[in-house]
């Protein structure tokens, strides 16, 4: 729990750019960034929900991405940033691409999603984790799917399960790092973070 950080409103940004109050936090309540996910898969809508990091720390707002173009826009406009989150965004972008495909074979599927894979990696070419996430999702497709799959829906479901597990693994790793790092600080210490 981050002491002294209060939100007056929490907004959900819909794909039509409208914002809807998602929930309200009163001054007596606190938000736990230890539990809040930066990016997650929405099973109900087959979409990706992410914090719009361009509005932090003054406002906590969420962006919904329903297609690869929206993921790419979020990456390019820095709505999603940070190496681990970019890796997950890349993998989830592949899942969105696969969901929109009507391919009937693995070869067809890999061929039809190739432009999206290139576009995702090009969204921020220096982001190693972004390419890593895209490559991990593609490798899963290559190893998990039969050449002639009978059910495209099963292929889609398999990849969504995989990218969600990738996100869960990333969260677990970051929490472990936070727990280890917390032991190095005392109450009242100041921390300056830097990303190059």
Q: How is this structure best summarized?
A:
Helix content is 46%, strand content 12%. The chain is of the alpha+beta class and 196 residues long. It has a single domain, classed as translation initiation factor eif-2b, domain 1 (Four Helix Bundle (Hemerythrin (Met), subunit A), Up-down Bundle).
Keywords:
196 residues, Four Helix Bundle (Hemerythrin (Met), subunit A), 46% helix, 5 helices
Structure description:
The chain is 46% helix and 12% strand. The chain is α+β, with helices and mostly antiparallel strands and 196 residues long. It has a single domain (10-174), classed as translation initiation factor eif-2b, domain 1 (Four Helix Bundle (Hemerythrin (Met), subunit A), Up-down Bundle), CATH 1.20.120. Strands 2-1-5-4-3 form a five-stranded mixed beta sheet. Helix 1 (68-76) packs antiparallel against helix 2 (83-99), helix 2 (83-99) runs antiparallel to helix 3 (106-122) and helix 3 (106-122) packs antiparallel against helix 4 (128-144). The protein is elongated and about 60 Å long. The two termini are 27 Å apart. Mean pLDDT is 84; it is low at 1-13 and 19-29.
